[in-house]
Each structure stands twice: as C-alpha cells, then as structure tokens.
Amino acid sequence: MAAWSVASPLCTWLVAACMSASFQDSHSISPPASSLSPSKRLSRRLRRKILTQCGGSSSSNRFSSISGSSFQGLVSSYLGYLEPCSEYYISRGLASLGFFGDTGFTSLFGSRTVRTNRRQRMLNRSTHSGEAVAVALEPAQEVSTKKKPITKQRRVVVTGMGVVTPLGHDPDVFYDNLLEGVSGISKIETFDCDQFPTRIAGEIKSFSTDGWVAPKLAKRMDKFMLYMLTAGKKALADGGITEDVMGGLDKTRCGVLIGSAMGGMKVFNDAIEALRISYKKMNPFCVPFATTNMGSAMLAMDLGWMGPNYSISTACATSNFCILNAANHIIRGEADVMLCGGSDAVIIPIGLGGFVACRALSQSNDDPTKASRPWDIDRDGFVMGEGAGVLLLEELEHAKKRGANIYAEFLGGSFTCDAYHMTEPHPDGAGVILCIEKALAQSGVSREDVNYINAHATSTPAGDLKEYQALIHCFGQNSELRVNSTKSMIGHLLGAAGAVEAVSVIQALRTGWIHPNINLENPDAGVDTNVLVGPKKEKLKVKVGLSNSFGFGGHNSSILFAPYK
Predict the structure, then answer these.
(1) In this structure, are residues 552 and 422 in contact, taking their beta carbons and an 8 Å threshold?
(2) 40, 198, 202, 329 — which has fewest CB within 10 A?
(3) Of the residues 128, 329, 426, 456, which is catalytic?
(4) Among this protein's residues, is 316 annotated catalytic?
(5) Distance (Å, rounded) from C-alpha 321 to C-alpha 334?
(6) Is 492 a catalytic residue?
C-alpha cells in the first residue's frame, strides 16, 4: 500500500509535467513576446531567471538531451525543465521515503541536487505553469481500493411460459401433444411450393392475435413479431402478471430479451417486390419491422418496461443465448424480471428457397410426419418449423414476495464456438464438449445429476451423430441418462427452437414425463438406443435437465434447469 500511495502521485505528476512542458514549448500555440502584457513578460523573465538559478542551463539545452536513447534522459529533461528543485520535494517529506533513496524523486531520475533559498522556492511554485502539478503533488486523500462486499448469488426461477407452435399455443396443450407423439409437420399451404424439392414444414395452420396485439399493428407486422408478442404476453399471463401486479412492478427493473435468427423476412421481401414498381410503394415500416430487435422493443413499449432490452441473433442457438443473458442480468442485479426467448417465421418462398439452396432440408414430401427423424439411419435433412417460445424469468425473492407459481429454477449455462465451418459441426465435437463442460462448471452441477437432455438433434446426417458422441463423452457413465429431440415432432423452429425446447424441459420437470423420439425406426449404427427415448413417452423424475442448441457459424449453447427446492 505504501508503494501505491507514492507511485500514484509520481505517475500523475509526470503526466502533468510532460503535458505542461509540451504545451509551453509548442511554437504553434505560444504567443509572441510582443503580444504579452508587461506582467506576463515579467513572469516569463522571472521564470527564466529561476530556472537558470535552479538548473544552470537554458531550456533549449535541457531539451537537447531528449535526443538521447534512454528513457531516463527524456524524463530528466522534462523534470529539469519544470522541477522546483530537490529541496522542494524534501520539504514535502517525500525524499525521506526509502523507495526513492536519500534525494527522493531527483535521485530516481538522476537530477542534480541544487541549493535554493525559501524565496526562490516560493517564486518557483507561484510562477510554474503547472497548477496541475501542484494539484497532483497534493492529493486530497490517499487512494484506497475497496473490495465489493461478498453477497449471495441471486437465484433465477421460471414463473411463466408462452408458446406459439405447430402443436399448439398453450404450454400444456403443446406438451400433451408431444407426450402423445403427435407430429406437427405437414404440407405447406401458405404458398404454392410445387417448384421446390421440399414442400413440407412445421407450419402453423391457425393463429390469432386477438386480445394480444392491436389490430392495426397486426396488419403491418411480420409474423415473427406477431408470434413473439403473443408468446410474450401469454408468458406474462401464465406467470400471473395481471394489471394489478403490473402496476406494482418497478418497470425500470423489468426487461425483454427475445431474439430471432432471421427477422422480418416477409416484410423485407415485400418491400423488395414493391421497389420493383416504385419506392413510393414501399411500406414505411419495412426497415424497422424487418430488424431482429424490434420485437423486443415493441413488447417493451407495450408493457412500459424500461430495463435491459435488446435481441441476440446467433442462428439456431438464438433462444439459448437470450435466455442465459437474461438470467445473467438478474444474477448481476440489473433486473428482477425478464421476458426471454426467440421467434422465427420463414416459411415463405425466399426462406424455403434459401435452405433448399444450402441442401439442408429433408425432401421426404410423401409422408411429412415421417420426415423429421433424428438419429435414424434414413434421415435426410431437417424440416423447417415456425413459432415462438418465451420464458418469464424472475429473481427468486421477487417471485416469492408476489406469491408467484415457480415452475423450475434456472441453474446456468454456457456458450462456445466451433471456429471450424459455417454449417458443419466440428469433426471431434470439441466445441460442444467444451460448451457442456463449461455449463456444468458455471452451474455447479455434477455430470451424474444430469439425467435428461433435450438434444439439438435436427435430423441431419452429420449433426445428430456428432452431438450424440459429445453427449456420451460427457455423460456416458450416467446409467439414468435419457435423451430426446422435440424436433422429431415440430421440426426446426430456427431461432425459436431453444426457447420452445426449454419449455419442453421445464414441462418434463413439472410432470415427471418425457416425450418420445418419433420416427426412430432404424437407429444409426453409431448410437445406443438404451440412451435415447423410444417411440413412447417415459416416466422420469428429472434431477437436472439440459437443453442444447447449436447454430450456423459454429455457435454452441447449453442451459440447465432443475426443480425448484
């Protein structure tokens, strides 16, 4: 501490001194002698006289030493130009410090010891161009560093859920359909897709915004925003946030973090078509309603929530990134309540065509319900889906105080990047393994406690097997482990997938039932069916549930939930 209290004023003094010297000797800003007032000319003569008496050389001679190769020479030049004589420092009591030797600062930089009388020291202090120097040498008080008081980490719980999916728009209806093995994949009806090699999707057939979104906005917004707003408000209703409860919330500590992988593709595509005719035909909302952040922003405007508000877009890992970041805002004390998740709606010609061009989609058009088949030897690509999932996260004590129904506790999670390929997984699964291990460490969960995993498993030839191998690497010794994929029934909801699958994990915690893997008729030779859930739902008391989501670009994410205790 002694070294810090001295070194800090020294560094400050050096900076101030150098700046002062540079300022004085800059020809571009120094006024000519003739323009100075008599009093200022007198001051300059006094300064020159004092400097000559103290140092015995002119400023030009002093600065000639700058051309030397040593740092000591440079600093000595500046100190010699501005230094108020060594006796000044001795009078301040600094020279007696052993850190600087017998002559204080001067011995440190090799300055000469010069005798001066009291009058010269007073003149030197009054005429120096360095009020900053005087301030730096006389700090008001010693700088001290205080450690942040140790506080117990704030716990995060799930108090509400909202979904818009091909299997229903209520969390219970959605999960009941999953338990029964119902498929939400069918032929696309929104537009004529006969020209495409893929003509199936997890398309939402019936959806209404009545009671959730103002009719005027419903006509203008992209579907991804409508799904997001509806699922978000349903999560609030499910969490018991009535108008009365809303009135009692500190809205500066309530935030929204709901992302999207693709944003408003329909709105933007329509704008391009309008532009072919004239820019005057373009929708004035085409730019804001196409951006991925606007859904979170519009929901916050509707609710008046002024806390953290933004969106994250990490392809198909978007929802998990949003959920984990939202939880971190609560843990850090920046918010008490957060709506988080993801939404996407790209079952339109440009969306379908883009993924067809990537050669990523299944072409099993003859039997849509059989098309999505994770880990099955006959899988030929993923099936696009659409929808939204939103969780209402809350700080535990805040939730208890308002008497909220707590569904589960959010334990933590992690992100990593494969840094390997835009669309292909890393051959040895290094990024996924690292992500899972970091998530366990961050959450303080042992491998043995994780007995249920909702896998990313999109029904692609490479992705399913690489993820499975990573899971076995991390949890292969856990005989209770059960793994399934929600995508076998609803397809891949892209940026919304992680949030909808998080709802699936939470429902498994609540009900004690995990849903089946449908279409797993001929398991890949590289998987063990003793780990994968079969074609029927299974009873399981979930201790800790893990949900994986991976995205184009090598984005990996894992989040963990457990029953609230």
Answers:
(1) yes
(2) 40
(3) 456
(4) yes
(5) 17
(6) yes
